């Protein structure tokens, strides 16, 4: 009972450093409980895209699990640093390492009990609220029912038992490696003034520069997907090296500037930051990376959710599309299908608009050689390729009412995606003169949505298309397809009813028929994109809390270290007002640099992220820019609030002695 009472007393007396740690751990428990309850919710199986939603939440679960372990270790290191002096005093007063281990064990058990009890209760309550929020975001009906899972609570309880066990073992290792004098000095043990590491500074700037260069020069969305993580890793490495080495170099340059350095507020700010910049930089870099993660996560998920209509329009150029292979269906059969769909539309009070049936080639994928020739798909890379569709002049004239005439070596060209400015095009050893560049085709819709350039080519007749097709390898995508499409006019309910009826009819008619409906796609996608936004909010809150906790611990640790320094400076003639001005200058310099650099990271990452969003179908970059600006401004005010609240702790610690002078 002695060690239990001692541990209880320690938790009460050290509540200033223990309370943020416990609150952060409780928050992590709450987040894990919410995700586990939602993931294991039986109502999740009723979602239109249950597999995708579960996959999304499963991914989010693992991200939060990894973050929980990393952040727990990080906050525990701050806590242990603040407690070393107290542990050293116990050691000098007669408590051996064995007795201190028992005391720490009880402290760990008490912390674990507080964390689990509070976290599971709060998490269980907020899980219901989050479920309702998710239901609102995904616009799901009554079939999405909430169900509480005791299995989720057991999983989280065991998870944090493991986390606290790891923290306890780490603390014991640190305790046994340190001698009583080192423990007694604790957090007051500063670092030597670091040397300027110019190579590291240059490397850091170079890493960030390369990451920025990748982002602003990348052309293809598919290239963006492959290079995204490379750019992220480079920027993260560069950020840590920039804060660690470049900040020291900048501070030393300021120190050499006598007009700047030998002023009371600048003198203390610069000298104190140089003194402990190595440990200071790691925390600031972590804050910067977390802020960047918040900005990227929220802006990306919010853009997809609120720009969903742009995504739907790009993925579905027409309201309804039916596709069939030409070797499995005849034109007469496709006309019968079109007639039946028209009947279904009338039965559901829907009017067909722009209803067309056309015969074109399969999507033919070709790669572009250095000389501009397009060759077969055996050598195709998506970074340097094009997608082609071929149609006869007769079919084109039937659909448009024009009288286009072509020779064997001539084509007419319409670019669905991308541009082509040359007067000739060479494909698989065949050269064609582009007789006409078509700006608009009524039965096709040009779009900014496309991973690669998409060509729509009109040939003289079927024979010319066959000659070209025969010269291509099988992998290119040979064959003919029928494409039936229409736009719809009617209420949302009637359009959905028609979509379900049409899909059911086509499934019964033949499993080889493909069908897409913008209304069904919208209904199916809202659950995934809404869940995506929900996960973005969860990640954003978690990363924001992490940044806030790191800021708080930095204020506490730095306030403790600066306490004696400011006391000495005031004793040698520095006024109380000058001390306040110096403190304000130092805090502003330290804590507003990370958020500024995070905003800069987002600005340079904008082109890369914008191209990644094209993979989802979002092509409205102006809308994405507006969302980014709103996100940065909103998060800046949240960051300002965190700075304002945590800076009070720094002032209180420093002014204890300052106020007595």
TrEMBL record:
<dbReference type="InterPro" id="IPR027022">
    <property type="entry name" value="ABC_permease_BceB-typ"/>
</dbReference>
<keyword id="KW-1133">Transmembrane helix</keyword>
<dbReference type="GO" id="GO:0005886">
    <property type="term" value="C:plasma membrane"/>
</dbReference>
<keyword id="KW-0813">Transport</keyword>
<dbReference type="InterPro" id="IPR052536">
    <property type="entry name" value="ABC-4_Integral_Memb_Prot"/>
</dbReference>
<keyword id="KW-1003">Cell membrane</keyword>
<dbReference type="InterPro" id="IPR003838">
    <property type="entry name" value="ABC3_permease_C"/>
</dbReference>
<feature type="transmembrane region" description="Helical">
    <location>
        <begin position="587"/>
        <end position="609"/>
    </location>
</feature>
<feature type="domain" description="ABC3 transporter permease C-terminal">
    <location>
        <begin position="62"/>
        <end position="176"/>
    </location>
</feature>
<dbReference type="GO" id="GO:0055085">
    <property type="term" value="P:transmembrane transport"/>
</dbReference>
<dbReference type="Pfam" id="PF02687">
    <property type="entry name" value="FtsX"/>
</dbReference>
<feature type="transmembrane region" description="Helical">
    <location>
        <begin position="109"/>
        <end position="134"/>
    </location>
</feature>
<feature type="transmembrane region" description="Helical">
    <location>
        <begin position="198"/>
        <end position="218"/>
    </location>
</feature>
<feature type="transmembrane region" description="Helical">
    <location>
        <begin position="621"/>
        <end position="642"/>
    </location>
</feature>
<protein>
    <recommendedName>
        <fullName>ABC3 transporter permease C-terminal domain-containing protein</fullName>
    </recommendedName>
</protein>
<feature type="transmembrane region" description="Helical">
    <location>
        <begin position="154"/>
        <end position="177"/>
    </location>
</feature>
<comment type="similarity">
    <text>Belongs to the ABC-4 integral membrane protein family.</text>
</comment>
<keyword id="KW-0812">Transmembrane</keyword>
<feature type="transmembrane region" description="Helical">
    <location>
        <begin position="59"/>
        <end position="80"/>
    </location>
</feature>
<feature type="transmembrane region" description="Helical">
    <location>
        <begin position="281"/>
        <end position="306"/>
    </location>
</feature>
<feature type="transmembrane region" description="Helical">
    <location>
        <begin position="21"/>
        <end position="39"/>
    </location>
</feature>
<feature type="transmembrane region" description="Helical">
    <location>
        <begin position="224"/>
        <end position="251"/>
    </location>
</feature>
<feature type="transmembrane region" description="Helical">
    <location>
        <begin position="526"/>
        <end position="553"/>
    </location>
</feature>
<keyword id="KW-0472">Membrane</keyword>
């Amino acid at each position: 009972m002695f060690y239990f009472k001692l541990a209880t007393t320690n938790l009460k007396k050290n509540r200033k450093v223990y309370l943020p740690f416990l609150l952060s751990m409780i928050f992590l428990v709450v987040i894990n409980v919410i995700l586990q309850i939602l993931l294991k919710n039986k109502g999740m199986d009723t979602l239109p895209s249950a597999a995708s939603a579960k996959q999304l939440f499963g991914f989010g679960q693992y991200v939060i699990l990894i973050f929980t372990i990393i952040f727990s270790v990080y906050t525990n290191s701050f806590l242990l640093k603040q407690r070393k002096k107290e542990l050293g005093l116990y050691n000098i007063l007669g408590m051996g390492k064995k007795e201190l281990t028992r005391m720490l064990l009880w402290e760990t058990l008490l912390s674990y009990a507080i964390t689990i009890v509070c976290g599971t209760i709060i998490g269980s309550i907020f899980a219901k609220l989050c479920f309702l929020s998710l239901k609102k975001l995904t616009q799901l009906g009554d079939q999405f029912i909430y169900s509480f899972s005791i299995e989720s609570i057991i999983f989280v309880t065991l998870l944090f038992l493991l986390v606290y066990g790891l923290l306890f073992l780490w603390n014991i290792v640190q305790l046994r490696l340190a001698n009583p004098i080192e423990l007694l000095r604790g957090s007051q043990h500063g670092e030597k003034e670091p040397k300027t590491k110019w190579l590291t500074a240059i490397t850091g700037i170079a890493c960030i520069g390369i990451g920025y260069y990748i982002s602003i020069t990348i052309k293809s969305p598919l290239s963006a997907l492959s290079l995204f993580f490379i750019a992220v890793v480079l920027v993260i490495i560069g950020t840590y090296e920039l804060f660690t080495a470049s900040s020291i170099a900048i501070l030393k340059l300021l120190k050499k500037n006598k007009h700047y350095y030998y002023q009371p507020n600048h003198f203390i700010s610069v000298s104190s930051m140089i003194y402990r910049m190595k440990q200071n930089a790691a925390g600031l870099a972590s804050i910067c990376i977390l802020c960047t993660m918040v900005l990227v996560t929220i802006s990306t998920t919010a853009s997809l959710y609120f720009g969903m209509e742009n995504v739907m329009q790009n993925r579905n150029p027409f309201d309804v599309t039916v596709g069939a292979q030409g070797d499995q269906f005849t034109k007469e059969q496709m006309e019968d299908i079109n007639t039946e769909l028209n009947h279904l539309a009338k039965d559901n009070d829907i009017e067909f608009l722009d209803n067309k049936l056309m015969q074109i080639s399969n999507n033919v994928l070709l790669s572009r050689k250095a000389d501009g020739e397009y060759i077969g798909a055996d050598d195709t890379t998506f970074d340097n390729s094009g997608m082609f569709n071929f149609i006869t002049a007769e079919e084109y004239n039937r659909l448009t009412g024009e009288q286009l005439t072509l020779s064997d070596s001539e084509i007419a060209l319409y670019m669905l995606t991308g541009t082509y400015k040359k007067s000739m095009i060479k494909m698989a050893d065949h050269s064609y003169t582009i007789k006409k560049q078509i700006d608009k085709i009524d039965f096709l819709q040009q779009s900014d949505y496309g991973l690669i350039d998409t060509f729509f080519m009109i040939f003289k007749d079927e024979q010319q298309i066959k000659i070209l097709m025969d010269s291509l390898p099988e992998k290119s995508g040979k064959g003919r397809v029928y494409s039936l499409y229409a736009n719809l006019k009617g209420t949302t309910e009637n359009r959905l009813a028609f979509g379900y009826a049409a899909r059911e009819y086509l499934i019964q008619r033949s499993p080889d028929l493909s069908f897409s409906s913008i209304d069904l796609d919208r209904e199916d996608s809202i659950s995934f994109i809404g869940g995506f936004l929900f996960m973005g909010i969860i990640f954003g809150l978690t990363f924001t809390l992490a940044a806030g906790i790191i800021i708080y611990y930095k204020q506490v640790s730095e306030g403790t270290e600066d306490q004696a320094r400011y006391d000495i400076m005031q004793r040698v003639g520095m006024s109380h007002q000058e001390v306040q001005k110096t403190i304000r200058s130092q805090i502003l310099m330290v804590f507003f640099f990370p958020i500024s650099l995070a905003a800069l990271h987002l600005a340079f990452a904008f082109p890369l992220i914008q191209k990644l969003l094209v993979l989802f179908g979002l092509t409205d970059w102006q809308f994405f820019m507006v969302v980014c600006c709103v996100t940065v401004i909103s998060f800046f005010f949240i960051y300002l609030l965190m700075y304002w609240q945590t800076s009070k702790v720094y002032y209180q610690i420093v002014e204890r002695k300052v106020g007595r002078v």
